[in-house]
Amino acid sequence: MNASREPVWSRSEAERQARIDLAACHRLAARFGFNEGIDNHLTLLVPGRTDRFYLAPFGLLWAEVKASALLELDFNGKVVAGSGLVEDTALYIHLSVHRLAPAARCVLHTHMPYATALGMLEDPRLEMAGQNALGFYDEIAYVEYNGLAFDYSEGERLARALGGKSVLILRNHGALVIGASVAQAFERLYFLERACQAQILALSSGRRLHILPQPVIEATAAQFRSGDKVGGAERTELHFQALKRLLDRSEPDYAN
What gap in Å lies between CA 158 and CA 15, rounded to an integer? Predict the structure, then answer.
């Protein structure tokens, strides 16, 4: 058991909201079936910090995670706020990705079924055959399986495999996405699974995929990048706020 005497609600409103968003992310991931027992990990850097992050204590179902339950860890792996167990692979993977990938303020690692299934194929590529997939053009890296992440070297190997991308398909394992915020990372996680689901379903027909022409792929990817706002508001934030309203109606204790 790791513990700190520092109250988790003793700081800024920005930190409180960050905790609420990460707790919502856990609840939503569970609702959409991205979870797997008490395993996998979703983390977020503490606002204003580049050397501390929030992590749910190991042993909770994601449907049980609350904002006040989140641990705060420093980059030495020490719990500086909250109390609970820290699972080894969560520490080694997430600390490494947060430390080595500057864009990774939020890091989501899951074994969600369709992305995991795609990574089990001989050719694990997400093909540019559907609109959701086009949103990930040139944003996915792939890394070979090398066993459990029971040390920092394995976490660092995964972090380096990102290579500036926002999505990592861990072959024979699962997926990892990063983002500048919980909203952005969850948006990527959600649509990655939808894109993988569509590809797996299409392949299950036994018929060949129709890959879109390269000019269409590149033009549509540019449209995705330029169409990230509606009326000045970020699409990712609008989506995440709508999803939090869903939680507010059905399981509002996530924000406690």
Answer: 28
